[in-house]
Prior knowledge:
54% helix; 13 helices; four-stranded antiparallel β-sheet; two-stranded parallel ribbon; 263 residues; alpha+beta; globular
Amino acid sequence: MPTIIKPNAQLLFTWGSEEFITAMSDVIYRGYSIEEALKRVRSDPSLIERRLTQLLRDGHHNVFEFIGASWLIEGSRALTHELVRHRIASYWQESQRYVDYARNPPRFILPPSIANSLTPLLDRLSEGYNAVRGIAPPEDARYILPNATASKIWVLMNGREFFLTFMPLRTGLGAFHELRLIAWLMFNTLIEAYPITARWVWEHLPRLHPDYCRHVLHLSKARRRELEAKYGTGDCRVLSVRSAFDAWGLQIPESLRGLVEGV
Length: 263
């Protein structure tokens, strides 16, 4: 039997902080020393929300390049081919040229709706890979592996790219459902690390990309009513979250669920 797993995203580390961005704005624009600026921010934490909200609202987004995160993601090759199109990021991906799946059997990632029907095919593909490995190295045997093959990929993005480009592009309902799921899983890991930025982005997502809600708006009235009845809302952010996790048979993580249920 082939090993079928679900997509996942593990936060490895973050860098920078909302506190430092706020303090540095006093260094850059008011001539404070960094020590004075940090002292001011720490004595009045409400300044962080006011300052970051102003920066986000006014489009002064370059400062969010001073925060960021790194994840270890496991998704299908179909997913990673789309993920790496975001070039303002760094990637290091599992090598099918060097990993020998005859010794370490491949994992596969498929939506639950088609997993059972494709299991026999995956068995034959695994057998075919092993047969090719009998006469050729992994770099040649990999030609037989499908897009459903799971791949680990180390990803690093700064906050501007992740929050203000990646999220608006990859969480709209028109995005590939597996990448949409991964985007929400990545976002969930940063809600506590960067709470003000994450909440502002959540609240403004439909306005951060002109096509964010297009897929919903272009549905027939009957299909739209069906979706709204199933998920209890017409909010395209909530439809995006609930449909992605539903498609993969996964529970919405606690932090993200809090935002969804607050709508």
